[in-house]
Amino acid sequence: MILNNRDPDRRARALAAPAPFPPMALSRGTQAALIGLRMFICLSTAMAIFTIVHG
Amino acid sequence: MPPPSDIAFVELQGNVGGLTDVAAATRARFAPTRWLRLRIPAAAALLVGPGALAMLGENDGPSMLSYATSGATYGLGFLLPFIIVTFAAAYVVQEMAMRLGAVTRRGYGELVFQRFGRFWGWASAADLAITNLITLVTEVIAIRLGMGFFGVPPWAAVACAVLLVAMGSWGGRYSTWERLAAGLAAFNLLFVAVAIFARPSADQILHAVATWGPAPKTTLQAFLLILASNIGATVTPWMLFFQQSASVDKGMGRRDIRRGRQNTAIGAVIAAVTGCAALLAATPLFAHHVDMSRYQDGAGFAEALRPIIGAPGAALFALGLVEAGAVAMLTISASTAYSLAEMISGAARSFNASPRQAPLFHTTNVGIAILAGAVVLIPGAPLLTLSLNANLLATILMPAALVFLLMMSGDRQIMGGDVNSRTVTVLGIAIAVLVAAAGSAYAAVGFLSALGIHSF
């Protein structure tokens, strides 16, 4: 019952940290796509800031 | 070695650092206390949860001002159904975050860190920290302006905002914090009352929803800005971080996913209704051709509405602004605290832990609220610029967070049978593409116009 979170076990479970997941192996293509997305976002942010300052 | 999907579901085993001690102490601490508990009826309890809080928290100061600006500038038309669609998109995204948290028992930041490495983990956290600080500043501004309508001095309003966040850290229980936030969030319905004072035409509302018209008559740049602002008013990075981490803090597991969906859906419906109400509340300003440039701040809406809908309606609008800012202060500060603590291995990241047990978490929670309050009190700070562009920044940064969310919730290795369905994946990709297109299109058109290359 998610909504009755007075349950002490539920609270304890929330505080516990399970073992970490193993890292996901990203292919070169995926890494390149993620870096490209990041550059696209940086460019958009820079243009928006320029517009706000000079617009 | 067991497969990773099994590793993920080993509960209370392989604990890190002192967290086992914290968990045991918490179990002992809370088990015997049964008095002075606020009982919530089962039906009302459906409203209290991370999903509803994320949705109503996102109906924050800049969002409600964005909706009101849409109504005051363009009247009833395209933007009313557009708001409804953005909340449907928000449900798709937030359901993924809730499911990911319930299945993996990890917050968004922690999971990105573990699965994709330090670089992407810290990049996500940096995105969140920047947008959260700017958004929190706008929440304090909303509280300041709303309380200013009733004559409360700015320093007192800022102090109230910071004290509220500190109260959230004081209780030592997630449920206490959640009820504080949910109790305040109920007052988001004040905007419905204001809309009733504004007496919108039912025929016009039905026409707008059915036909998505009339379209706003404005320049391409202004149209893209209002689109991006309204998207950023509904789908933002902090919501992902918050809902996933809060679902973990609430102790949700796989069996709670159905209730989590219900909670998120109810929150989305209420938030869509109140968001549309904010737009409707401001439409009399459009009908009366009120020049909103005379009212260059949030409280200006209440002032501008007073002669048209009366003092009670205007006062309710100002109170609504205070509520919108207050709930968002709690949820956005919490999302910052969760994400930072999740980056540090072994650091406790829970409202169930006391400030002594989770010093980094609680210090960040209150510290970022203090920082935002201090910025608002700096004389000459560009507060108006921050208010108007907080949602735009959220829209531009959102696609990065969405891509990781889609990758993780579509990863069968960690999600098992609760992996994204094909429909959810397609919807998620469509939302990411549309959000990216809206943010970057405004940025590009605005940039070219600012350079004088082309006037749009």
Strand tally of chain A: 0
Query: Total helix count of chain B?
Result: 21
Query: Given the C-alpha coordinates, what overall shape of chain B results?
Result: globular
Shape of chain A: flat
Number of strands of chain B: 0
How much beta of chain B, percentage-wise? under 5%
Helix content of chain B: over 70%
Order of helices and strands of chain B: HHHHHHHHHHHHHHHHHHHHH
Describe this structure in words.
The complex is a heterodimer of chains A (55) and B (456). With 55 residues, chain A is mainly α. Chain A has helices spanning 8-15, 28-54. Chain A is flat. By secondary structure, chain B is mainly α. In chain B, α5 packs antiparallel against α13 (220-232), α10 packs antiparallel against α17 and α13 (220-232) packs across α19. The radius of gyration of chain B is 22 Å and the shape is globular.
Task: Summarize, please.
The complex is a heterodimer of chains A (55) and B (456). Chain A has 55 residues and is mainly alpha-helical.
Which helices and strands occur, and which strands form pairs?
The complex is a heterodimer of chains A (about 55) and B (about 450).
Chain A lengths: L7 H8 L12 H27 L1
Chain B lengths: L3 H5 L10 H12 L11 H4 L4 H9 L2 H14 L4 H26 L3 H9 L1 H31 L5 H17 L3 H12 L4 H9 L3 H10 L8 H13 L4 H13 L7 H31 L11 H11 L1 H33 L15 H19 L5 H27 L2 H4 L6 H30 L5
